[in-house]
Each structure stands twice: as C-alpha cells, then as structure tokens.
Amino acid sequence: MRHPIFLLPALVALAACGDRGGDAEVARALDDINVIDETNLNDVMMTVADPGEAVSYFQRASDANPERVDLRRGLAQSLVRAGRIPEAVAAYTQLVALPAATEEDRVAYAGALIRNNSWDRAESVLDAIPPTVETFDRYRFEAMVADSNEEWSRADSFYETALGLTTTPAGVLNNWGYSNLTRGNYAEAERFFADALRHEPNMFTAKNNLVLARGAQRNYDLPVIPMTQVERAQLLYTMALTAIKQNDLNIGRSLLQDAIDTHPQHFEEAVRAMRALDQGA
C-alpha cells in the first residue's frame, strides 16, 4: 500500500532543486518508497496473510525477480505455512544454492526436510552448518534428528539447550515428552507434558500426549487440566484405545461409552471402536 503522506514532501523538496538531475532524483525517491512499501507488504504476507495468498504473492514476486533471495525465502517459508511441504523442500533446495543464502536458511531447510520425513538429508544439512550457529531452531531440529536415531543422550542435551533459547518452551517440552514416551519413560514423559501445559494450557497435542503417558502406566483417570467438552470426549477416546491396547478391555469399553456420552455430537470414531470391540468379544 502506498503512503502519499511520505511521497509529497519528497517530491516537493526535489522539485525545488531545479536542476536537470531532478528527474533522476525523483525516480530514486520513488524507488526508495517502493522498497519501503514492499518490505512492509512482505512482512504482512509472512506473518498475517492467508498462507495460500502468501504463496501466490511470493511465487509471482520471485518469478519476476529470481535473483532476490528475500523473495525466495518468503516463498519457501510460505509453503511451509501452507502445509505444502514437498514444494517447500524444493523451494529451500533452490534457495540454499544461492550465494546470498544464510546459515539460518539452511537451518530452515533442515526443518522442512524433517517435516517431509527426510531424516537423513536433514541430518546432512545440519552437520554442514558451523557449530557457531547457535539458534533455537538449530538445536530443536538437532534434538529431533537425534531422537530419530535413538541417540537419547544427544537428544536430551539438544532439548535442554533449545529450552534455554526460547521464551515459549511448550513446544520443546511437548517434543521432549514425546521423546521420553517413545523410550518408555512414561512417568518422565508425563512430567514434560504437564510442564508444557503449564506454559500453554490450550495445547491439545500435549493434553493428548499426557493421557497417553498416564494410560501407558495404567492410570486411566483423566488429568485435572482445562478442557472443553469435545476435548474431554476425545481424551476419553484416547485413554480407551490405550486401555484396549493393553488388553484392559472392560476399562476400554467403559471409557469408550463415556466418550460417546460426553461428546456433544455423534462421535463416529468412538462408535466404530465400540462396535469393533463388541464384535471381537
């Protein structure tokens, strides 16, 4: 969006010069204003715009200016926001090949590869980044790669470092908890999920993981946490499946019935699970 309030004084001042270089000065002033406006638009597209609209914007802009690394970066980031991960990986592959690409771009590239389940490639990208690049995302991704390799001590070290580099630790705590859930450290996983919810009480993923951790210990009581009626039904369903998996069939059946009765609408998944349980009885 243009802002004439900034444009008019610049043109008046340049017109007063009265020399033959005035036209060139006016053109330069307009270019400067365009750059300011474009920067603002880029920021808006990266943060608050609809992801699909942002992808379209950065695609057009980067096609018109293929040498602009900032536009290619915007395209890659927007594709991640839009959930178009294979395309994001392709965009990052092109981005990091440019001379002006940064180490932060390579960290983001590793993140896109992780989302694409390309763990070996992500590890190779991270290994090539100098150890002096000590960012939250770098350590978060390093922890996830270590998890995928079942290198638990390394994962713990990276998670701990990442925690010290963020003011919003819920996501890291949830991932660290899931790492412990995978290892079979259920009580420790429960502690991490509870910590995540203390920071972000509405994070449903952490709520669901907390129920999984409690159920794995055969503790089939829902935790005392804030939850909506729909969330309560979904968590009862998760707990029921955990009980059934551990062959606690009567408890699982009771929890499924609670989930069906609790949900404010028809809970098809729980109904199907109940039918399957009854048919197998």
From TrEMBL:
Q: Where does the sequence pass through the membrane?
A: none
Please tell me whether the keyword Nucleotide-binding is annotated for this protein.
Answer: no
TPR repeat intervals: 170-203
Keyword list (alphabetical) reads: TPR repeat
A Pfam match: TPR_16
Identify the Gene3D superfamilies for this entry.
Tetratricopeptide repeat domain
Which branch of life, at top level? Bacteria
Asked if the record carries the keyword ATP-binding, the reply is: no
Name the InterPro entries for this protein. Answer: TPR-like_helical_dom_sf, TPR_rpt
Stated name of the protein: Tetratricopeptide repeat-containing protein
